[in-house]
Amino acid sequence: MQTEELKKFIQEEIVNVAFKKVSFEESLIHSKLLDSITMVDLIVSIEERIGKQIPQHLISDDNFDSIDKIINTVNQI
Questions:
Q1: What pLDDT, in 10s, does the model give residues 12-51?
Q2: pLDDT score, position 2
Q3: pLDDT tens per residue across span 57-71
Q4: What is the CATH number of domain 3-74?
Q5: Which residues, 6 or more positions from 1, have their beta carbon under 8 angstroms from its beta carbon?
Q6: Neighbour tally for 13: CB within 10 Å
Q7: Using an 8 Å Cβ cutoff, are 24 and 7 in contact?
Q8: Inter-residue contact 20 to 33 (CB < 8 Å)
Q9: CA Rg, the chain, in Å?
Q10: pLDDT number for residue 1
Q11: What is the pTM of this model?
Q12: Contact 11, 33 (CB under 8 A)
């Protein structure tokens, strides 16, 4: 999957779970836009989209605090 396509998908999923459009660099967790429940929803959606499971050791507030950071984390899989 292309990076730009995945970025836009994640951006749309955040609108679905948090009802707000965010930039690719905007904080998701530290800003409290996403909580633990909405983060799990987002992770499941990403895993379904990419067809791979994100390893537990990569799931952290730092790795998932922005769309750009999520993309970097997904690229490590």
A1: 999 998 899 999 999 999 999 999 999 999 999 999 999 9
A2: 87
A3: 999 999 999 999 999
A4: 1.10.1200.10
A5: 49, 50
A6: 19
A7: yes
A8: yes
A9: 11
A10: 62
A11: 0.91
A12: no
Domain ranges of the chain: 3-74
Q: Which amino acid is at 11?
A: Q
Closest CA to 67 of 1, 5, 10, 2: 10
Other Cβ atoms within 10 Å of 48 Cβ, number:
9
Beta-carbon contacts of residue 65 (< 8 Å; ≥ 6 apart): 27, 28, 29, 30
Entry field: residues in the chain: 77
Euclidean distance between CA atoms 36 and 43, whole angstroms: 10
Determine the Cα–Cα distance for residues 37 and 77; give it in Å rounded to an integer: 23
What string of H, E and C letters represents the secondary structure of the chain? CCHHHHHHHHHHHHHHHHCCCCCCCCCCCCCCCCCHHHHHHHHHHHHHHHCCCCCHHHCCCCCCCCHHHHHHHHCCC
